[in-house]
Amino acid sequence: MKIVCDNKIPFLKGALEPYAEVAYLPGKDTTAEVVRDADAIITRTRTICNEALLKGSKVKVIATATIGFDHIDTAWCEANGIVWANAPGCNSWSVKQYIASVLVTLAKKHSLRLADLTLGVVGVGNVGSKVAEVATLLGMKVLLNDPPRARKEGDAMFVTLDEITEQSDIITVHVPLSTTGDDATWHLFDARRLAKLTPRQILINSSRGPVVDNNALKQALERRQLKGAVLDVWEGEPDLDAGLVSLLDIATPHIAGYSADGKANGTTMSVRTVAKCLGLPLAEWKASDVPAPRQPLTFAIDGKGKSKQDIVSEAILYTYDVTADSEALRASTDTFEAQRGDYPVRREPTAYTVALTNVEEETAETLRKIGFQTK
Protein backbone atom coordinates (compact mmCIF):
# COMPACT_ATOMS: atom_id res chain seq x y z
CA MET A 1 0.00 0.00 0.00
CA LYS A 2 1.31 3.47 -0.89
CA ILE A 3 0.19 6.88 0.35
CA VAL A 4 1.46 10.16 -1.12
CA CYS A 5 1.47 13.11 1.29
CA ASP A 6 2.22 16.80 0.98
CA ASN A 7 5.39 17.31 2.99
CA LYS A 8 4.10 20.56 4.53
CA ILE A 9 1.27 18.86 6.40
CA PRO A 10 2.33 18.89 10.07
CA PHE A 11 2.04 16.17 12.71
CA LEU A 12 1.62 13.50 10.02
CA LYS A 13 4.93 11.67 9.92
CA GLY A 14 4.82 8.35 11.71
CA ALA A 15 1.05 7.94 11.67
CA LEU A 16 0.77 5.87 8.49
CA GLU A 17 4.20 4.26 8.21
CA PRO A 18 3.24 1.10 10.15
CA TYR A 19 0.67 0.29 7.47
CA ALA A 20 1.94 1.69 4.17
CA GLU A 21 4.81 3.05 2.14
CA VAL A 22 4.54 6.81 2.64
CA ALA A 23 6.02 9.35 0.23
CA TYR A 24 6.33 12.97 1.39
CA LEU A 25 6.64 15.50 -1.42
CA PRO A 26 6.12 19.22 -2.04
CA GLY A 27 2.67 19.82 -3.47
CA LYS A 28 4.09 20.97 -6.80
CA ASP A 29 6.05 17.72 -7.14
CA THR A 30 3.02 15.47 -6.73
CA THR A 31 2.76 14.39 -10.37
CA ALA A 32 0.82 11.73 -12.29
CA GLU A 33 3.92 9.54 -12.31
CA VAL A 34 4.25 9.81 -8.54
CA VAL A 35 0.63 8.90 -7.79
CA ARG A 36 0.22 6.20 -10.45
CA ASP A 37 0.81 3.38 -7.95
CA ALA A 38 -0.57 5.20 -4.91
CA ASP A 39 -3.67 4.10 -3.02
CA ALA A 40 -4.26 7.44 -1.32
CA ILE A 41 -3.26 11.08 -1.42
CA ILE A 42 -3.18 13.45 1.55
CA THR A 43 -2.80 16.93 0.19
CA ARG A 44 -3.25 20.69 0.46
CA THR A 45 -4.48 23.29 -1.99
CA ARG A 46 -1.27 23.41 -4.03
CA THR A 47 -1.89 20.01 -5.69
CA ILE A 48 -4.54 20.05 -8.41
CA CYS A 49 -6.31 16.69 -8.15
CA ASN A 50 -7.94 16.23 -11.56
CA GLU A 51 -7.99 13.84 -14.49
CA ALA A 52 -4.50 14.90 -15.57
CA LEU A 53 -3.11 13.81 -12.21
CA LEU A 54 -5.29 10.80 -11.47
CA LYS A 55 -6.19 9.04 -14.74
CA GLY A 56 -4.73 5.53 -14.82
CA SER A 57 -3.71 5.62 -11.17
CA LYS A 58 -4.67 3.27 -8.33
CA VAL A 59 -5.82 6.14 -6.11
CA LYS A 60 -8.90 5.23 -4.09
CA VAL A 61 -9.12 8.22 -1.75
CA ILE A 62 -8.00 11.86 -1.62
CA ALA A 63 -8.02 13.73 1.68
CA THR A 64 -7.18 17.42 1.75
CA ALA A 65 -6.19 18.83 5.12
CA THR A 66 -7.97 22.09 4.26
CA ILE A 67 -11.46 23.53 4.35
CA GLY A 68 -11.27 24.51 0.68
CA PHE A 69 -11.54 21.82 -1.98
CA ASP A 70 -11.70 23.69 -5.28
CA HIS A 71 -8.31 22.10 -6.12
CA ILE A 72 -10.11 18.74 -6.37
CA ASP A 73 -12.17 17.90 -9.45
CA THR A 74 -14.87 16.34 -7.34
CA ALA A 75 -17.11 15.41 -10.26
CA TRP A 76 -14.32 13.51 -12.03
CA CYS A 77 -13.32 11.77 -8.80
CA GLU A 78 -16.88 10.68 -8.07
CA ALA A 79 -17.41 9.49 -11.65
CA ASN A 80 -14.26 7.38 -11.38
CA GLY A 81 -14.88 5.88 -7.96
CA ILE A 82 -12.37 7.99 -6.02
CA VAL A 83 -13.49 9.01 -2.56
CA TRP A 84 -12.57 12.57 -1.63
CA ALA A 85 -12.91 14.57 1.56
CA ASN A 86 -11.95 17.98 2.82
CA ALA A 87 -11.62 19.00 6.47
CA PRO A 88 -14.63 21.27 7.12
CA GLY A 89 -14.25 23.44 10.18
CA CYS A 90 -10.74 22.21 10.94
CA ASN A 91 -9.30 25.70 11.13
CA SER A 92 -12.44 27.69 11.88
CA TRP A 93 -11.15 28.64 15.34
CA SER A 94 -7.90 29.75 13.75
CA VAL A 95 -9.69 32.05 11.28
CA LYS A 96 -11.80 33.34 14.17
CA GLN A 97 -8.55 34.27 15.94
CA TYR A 98 -7.19 35.89 12.76
CA ILE A 99 -10.31 38.02 12.25
CA ALA A 100 -10.34 39.00 15.93
CA SER A 101 -6.76 40.20 15.60
CA VAL A 102 -7.63 42.03 12.38
CA LEU A 103 -10.63 43.76 13.97
CA VAL A 104 -8.78 45.03 17.03
CA THR A 105 -5.83 46.08 14.84
CA LEU A 106 -8.12 48.02 12.51
CA ALA A 107 -9.80 49.61 15.52
CA LYS A 108 -6.45 50.78 16.84
CA LYS A 109 -5.25 52.05 13.45
CA HIS A 110 -8.43 53.96 12.59
CA SER A 111 -9.38 54.97 16.18
CA LEU A 112 -12.60 52.97 16.07
CA ARG A 113 -14.84 51.85 18.91
CA LEU A 114 -15.93 48.36 17.91
CA ALA A 115 -19.16 48.60 19.91
CA ASP A 116 -20.24 51.41 17.57
CA LEU A 117 -19.69 49.37 14.40
CA THR A 118 -21.60 46.85 12.32
CA LEU A 119 -19.84 43.79 10.91
CA GLY A 120 -21.28 42.11 7.84
CA VAL A 121 -20.41 38.42 7.61
CA VAL A 122 -20.74 36.98 4.11
CA GLY A 123 -20.88 33.18 4.36
CA VAL A 124 -22.01 31.77 7.69
CA GLY A 125 -20.68 28.23 7.74
CA ASN A 126 -18.18 26.74 10.19
CA VAL A 127 -15.89 29.76 9.89
CA GLY A 128 -18.36 32.61 9.41
CA SER A 129 -20.47 31.54 12.37
CA LYS A 130 -17.44 31.65 14.69
CA VAL A 131 -16.40 35.02 13.29
CA ALA A 132 -19.91 36.30 14.03
CA GLU A 133 -19.61 35.00 17.60
CA VAL A 134 -16.32 36.75 18.32
CA ALA A 135 -17.54 40.00 16.74
CA THR A 136 -20.59 39.91 19.01
CA LEU A 137 -18.29 39.37 21.99
CA LEU A 138 -16.32 42.42 20.86
CA GLY A 139 -19.56 44.39 21.10
CA MET A 140 -20.25 44.74 17.39
CA LYS A 141 -23.63 44.54 15.72
CA VAL A 142 -23.49 41.61 13.28
CA LEU A 143 -25.36 41.08 10.01
CA LEU A 144 -25.36 37.65 8.37
CA ASN A 145 -25.55 36.80 4.66
CA ASP A 146 -25.75 33.22 3.47
CA PRO A 147 -28.21 32.54 0.62
CA PRO A 148 -28.05 28.71 0.80
CA ARG A 149 -28.76 28.78 4.53
CA ALA A 150 -31.48 31.42 4.09
CA ARG A 151 -33.28 29.20 1.57
CA LYS A 152 -33.08 26.25 3.93
CA GLU A 153 -33.72 27.97 7.25
CA GLY A 154 -35.74 31.03 6.29
CA ASP A 155 -34.84 34.68 6.06
CA ALA A 156 -35.24 35.63 9.70
CA MET A 157 -31.54 35.39 10.58
CA PHE A 158 -30.16 36.66 7.29
CA VAL A 159 -29.95 39.77 5.14
CA THR A 160 -29.17 40.23 1.47
CA LEU A 161 -25.72 41.02 0.16
CA ASP A 162 -26.98 44.46 -0.85
CA GLU A 163 -28.02 45.07 2.76
CA ILE A 164 -24.57 43.95 3.91
CA THR A 165 -22.86 46.43 1.60
CA GLU A 166 -25.25 49.22 2.56
CA GLN A 167 -25.26 48.79 6.34
CA SER A 168 -21.89 47.35 7.38
CA ASP A 169 -18.87 49.32 8.51
CA ILE A 170 -16.65 46.27 8.03
CA ILE A 171 -17.42 43.34 5.70
CA THR A 172 -15.69 39.99 6.10
CA VAL A 173 -16.02 37.20 3.53
CA HIS A 174 -16.08 33.46 4.39
CA VAL A 175 -17.49 31.68 1.34
CA PRO A 176 -16.22 28.74 -0.72
CA LEU A 177 -15.10 29.44 -4.28
CA SER A 178 -17.67 28.47 -6.90
CA THR A 179 -17.92 29.62 -10.50
CA THR A 180 -21.41 28.50 -11.51
CA GLY A 181 -24.97 28.49 -10.24
CA ASP A 182 -27.10 30.93 -8.29
CA ASP A 183 -24.55 31.04 -5.48
CA ALA A 184 -21.42 31.54 -7.59
CA THR A 185 -18.77 33.39 -5.58
CA TRP A 186 -16.11 34.03 -8.22
CA HIS A 187 -15.68 37.83 -8.23
CA LEU A 188 -18.55 38.15 -5.80
CA PHE A 189 -16.98 41.50 -5.01
CA ASP A 190 -16.38 42.78 -8.52
CA ALA A 191 -15.99 46.34 -9.77
CA ARG A 192 -19.76 46.89 -9.67
CA ARG A 193 -20.17 45.76 -6.09
CA LEU A 194 -17.01 47.47 -4.88
CA ALA A 195 -18.31 50.72 -6.38
CA LYS A 196 -21.22 50.52 -3.93
CA LEU A 197 -18.86 50.72 -0.95
CA THR A 198 -18.10 54.05 0.67
CA PRO A 199 -15.10 55.67 2.37
CA ARG A 200 -16.44 54.56 5.77
CA GLN A 201 -16.16 50.84 4.92
CA ILE A 202 -13.46 48.19 5.13
CA LEU A 203 -13.45 44.86 3.25
CA ILE A 204 -11.76 41.70 4.56
CA ASN A 205 -11.22 38.55 2.49
CA SER A 206 -9.77 35.42 4.09
CA SER A 207 -11.81 32.91 2.07
CA ARG A 208 -10.54 32.33 -1.49
CA GLY A 209 -8.59 34.81 -3.58
CA PRO A 210 -10.88 35.10 -6.65
CA VAL A 211 -13.92 35.91 -4.50
CA VAL A 212 -12.68 39.51 -4.70
CA ASP A 213 -11.63 40.98 -8.05
CA ASN A 214 -8.13 42.05 -7.02
CA ASN A 215 -7.63 44.47 -9.89
CA ALA A 216 -10.96 46.15 -9.21
CA LEU A 217 -10.12 46.35 -5.50
CA LYS A 218 -6.79 47.98 -6.31
CA GLN A 219 -8.52 50.60 -8.42
CA ALA A 220 -11.14 51.22 -5.72
CA LEU A 221 -8.42 51.73 -3.11
CA GLU A 222 -6.47 54.03 -5.41
CA ARG A 223 -9.63 56.13 -5.81
CA ARG A 224 -10.24 55.95 -2.04
CA GLN A 225 -13.63 54.47 -2.77
CA LEU A 226 -13.48 52.64 0.56
CA LYS A 227 -11.67 53.22 3.83
CA GLY A 228 -9.45 50.17 3.50
CA ALA A 229 -9.12 46.46 2.91
CA VAL A 230 -7.49 43.34 4.32
CA LEU A 231 -6.44 40.36 2.20
CA ASP A 232 -5.15 37.00 3.35
CA VAL A 233 -5.98 35.31 0.02
CA TRP A 234 -5.13 36.50 -3.46
CA GLU A 235 -5.86 36.05 -7.12
CA GLY A 236 -2.86 34.40 -8.75
CA GLU A 237 -1.11 33.56 -5.49
CA PRO A 238 1.74 33.08 -4.80
CA ASP A 239 2.45 35.85 -7.33
CA LEU A 240 1.16 39.06 -5.78
CA ASP A 241 0.53 42.56 -7.11
CA ALA A 242 2.96 44.59 -4.99
CA GLY A 243 0.97 47.72 -5.78
CA LEU A 244 -2.16 46.20 -4.25
CA VAL A 245 -0.22 44.99 -1.22
CA SER A 246 0.98 48.55 -0.57
CA LEU A 247 -2.59 49.87 -0.52
CA LEU A 248 -3.97 47.43 2.05
CA ASP A 249 -4.37 47.91 5.78
CA ILE A 250 -3.24 44.35 6.38
CA ALA A 251 -1.77 41.87 3.87
CA THR A 252 -0.95 38.29 4.88
CA PRO A 253 0.22 35.18 2.96
CA HIS A 254 -2.85 32.91 3.17
CA ILE A 255 -2.26 32.02 6.82
CA ALA A 256 -5.57 32.92 8.50
CA GLY A 257 -6.20 29.24 9.21
CA TYR A 258 -2.59 28.45 10.09
CA SER A 259 -2.75 28.05 13.86
CA ALA A 260 -0.98 24.94 15.05
CA ASP A 261 -4.28 23.77 16.55
CA GLY A 262 -6.10 24.17 13.22
CA LYS A 263 -3.37 22.33 11.36
CA ALA A 264 -3.55 19.47 13.87
CA ASN A 265 -7.31 19.25 13.33
CA GLY A 266 -6.89 19.11 9.54
CA THR A 267 -4.27 16.39 9.77
CA THR A 268 -6.41 14.36 12.16
CA MET A 269 -9.42 14.51 9.86
CA SER A 270 -7.34 13.56 6.81
CA VAL A 271 -5.73 10.55 8.46
CA ARG A 272 -9.09 9.29 9.68
CA THR A 273 -10.59 9.68 6.19
CA VAL A 274 -7.80 7.64 4.58
CA ALA A 275 -7.89 5.08 7.39
CA LYS A 276 -11.62 4.51 6.97
CA CYS A 277 -11.35 4.08 3.20
CA LEU A 278 -8.33 1.78 3.30
CA GLY A 279 -9.34 -0.19 6.38
CA LEU A 280 -6.50 0.98 8.62
CA PRO A 281 -6.88 0.83 12.42
CA LEU A 282 -6.63 4.59 12.90
CA ALA A 283 -10.26 5.61 13.48
CA GLU A 284 -9.34 7.26 16.80
CA TRP A 285 -5.95 8.64 15.75
CA LYS A 286 -5.33 12.24 16.73
CA ALA A 287 -2.46 14.58 15.92
CA SER A 288 -0.46 15.16 19.08
CA ASP A 289 2.57 17.01 20.40
CA VAL A 290 1.30 20.40 19.22
CA PRO A 291 4.25 22.68 20.03
CA ALA A 292 4.19 25.73 22.25
CA PRO A 293 4.55 29.19 20.73
CA ARG A 294 7.42 31.55 21.42
CA GLN A 295 5.49 33.46 24.09
CA PRO A 296 4.53 31.86 27.43
CA LEU A 297 1.09 30.26 27.60
CA THR A 298 0.34 32.17 30.80
CA PHE A 299 0.33 35.96 30.89
CA ALA A 300 -1.11 38.81 32.94
CA ILE A 301 -3.26 41.86 32.25
CA ASP A 302 -3.77 44.74 34.68
CA GLY A 303 -6.99 46.44 33.63
CA LYS A 304 -6.53 49.62 35.66
CA GLY A 305 -7.44 52.62 33.53
CA LYS A 306 -8.27 50.44 30.50
CA SER A 307 -11.56 50.04 28.67
CA LYS A 308 -13.11 46.66 27.97
CA GLN A 309 -11.97 46.96 24.33
CA ASP A 310 -8.42 47.75 25.50
CA ILE A 311 -8.30 44.69 27.74
CA VAL A 312 -9.80 42.26 25.24
CA SER A 313 -7.57 43.64 22.47
CA GLU A 314 -4.49 43.18 24.64
CA ALA A 315 -5.37 39.53 25.24
CA ILE A 316 -6.13 38.81 21.58
CA LEU A 317 -2.94 40.48 20.35
CA TYR A 318 -0.86 38.62 22.94
CA THR A 319 -1.85 35.33 21.33
CA TYR A 320 -1.56 36.64 17.77
CA ASP A 321 -0.62 40.07 16.40
CA VAL A 322 -1.49 40.03 12.70
CA THR A 323 0.74 43.04 12.00
CA ALA A 324 3.85 40.86 12.26
CA ASP A 325 2.66 38.66 9.39
CA SER A 326 1.61 41.72 7.40
CA GLU A 327 4.95 43.45 7.82
CA ALA A 328 6.80 40.30 6.76
CA LEU A 329 4.78 40.01 3.56
CA ARG A 330 5.16 43.69 2.70
CA ALA A 331 8.91 43.35 3.11
CA SER A 332 9.14 40.35 0.79
CA THR A 333 6.16 39.51 -1.41
CA ASP A 334 8.26 37.10 -3.48
CA THR A 335 8.73 34.77 -0.48
CA PHE A 336 4.97 34.16 -0.13
CA GLU A 337 5.30 30.36 -0.22
CA ALA A 338 8.28 30.30 2.13
CA GLN A 339 6.40 32.41 4.65
CA ARG A 340 3.55 29.91 4.56
CA GLY A 341 5.80 26.86 4.65
CA ASP A 342 7.93 28.14 7.53
CA TYR A 343 5.10 29.75 9.46
CA PRO A 344 5.87 30.12 13.18
CA VAL A 345 3.82 28.29 15.79
CA ARG A 346 0.58 30.11 16.54
CA ARG A 347 -1.68 28.78 19.27
CA GLU A 348 -5.33 29.68 19.68
CA PRO A 349 -6.74 31.44 22.78
CA THR A 350 -7.87 28.11 24.27
CA ALA A 351 -4.19 27.30 24.88
CA TYR A 352 -3.68 30.39 27.06
CA THR A 353 -4.35 31.37 30.65
CA VAL A 354 -4.53 35.05 31.56
CA ALA A 355 -4.14 36.35 35.11
CA LEU A 356 -6.43 39.34 35.56
CA THR A 357 -6.24 42.20 38.02
CA ASN A 358 -8.51 45.27 38.12
CA VAL A 359 -10.76 43.69 35.49
CA GLU A 360 -14.55 43.63 35.82
CA GLU A 361 -16.26 40.26 35.82
CA GLU A 362 -18.16 41.07 32.61
CA THR A 363 -14.87 41.59 30.77
CA ALA A 364 -13.39 38.44 32.31
CA GLU A 365 -16.42 36.49 31.15
CA THR A 366 -15.97 37.87 27.63
CA LEU A 367 -12.37 36.62 27.62
CA ARG A 368 -13.54 33.19 28.76
CA LYS A 369 -16.15 33.09 25.98
CA ILE A 370 -13.44 33.92 23.45
CA GLY A 371 -11.59 30.87 24.73
CA PHE A 372 -9.12 32.06 27.35
CA GLN A 373 -8.68 30.46 30.74
CA THR A 374 -8.64 33.15 33.44
CA LYS A 375 -7.36 33.36 36.96
Shape: globular
What's the helix-strand series? Answer: EEHEHEHEHEHEHHEHEHEHEHEHHHEHE
The major pleated sheet works out as:
6 strands, parallel
The chain-level mean pLDDT equals: 96
- Low-pLDDT parts are none
Describe the structure.
By secondary structure, the chain is of the alpha/beta class. It is 36% helix and 15% strand. The strands form three sheets. The protein has a six-stranded parallel beta sheet, sandwiched between helices. Strands 2-1-3-4-5 form a five-stranded parallel beta sheet. Helix 2 links the parallel strand 3 and strand 4. Helix 4 packs across helix 12. The protein is globular and about 65 Å long. The model has no long low-confidence stretch (mean pLDDT 96).
Label this structure with key terms:
single chain; 375 residues; alpha/beta; 6-stranded parallel β-sheet; 5-stranded parallel β-sheet; 14 strands
Summarize the model shown.
With 375 residues, the protein is α/β, with parallel strands linked by helices. It starts with a strand and ends with a strand.
Chart the SSEs and their pairings.
Layout: E1 2-6, E2 21-25, H1 32-35, E3 40-43, H2 51-54, E4 61-64, H3 74-79, E5 83-85, H4 92-110, E6 118-122, H5 126-137, E7 141-145, H6 147-153, H7 161-167, E8 170-173, H8 191-194, E9 202-205, H9 214-222, E10 228-231, H10 242-247, E11 250-251, H11 260-278, E12 298-302, H12 308-319, H13 322-331, H14 336-341, E13 353-357, H15 361-370, E14 373-374
Parallel strand pairs: 1-2, 1-3, 3-4, 4-5, 6-7, 6-8, 8-9, 9-10, 10-11, 12-13, 13-14
Helix pairs in contact: 4-5, 4-12
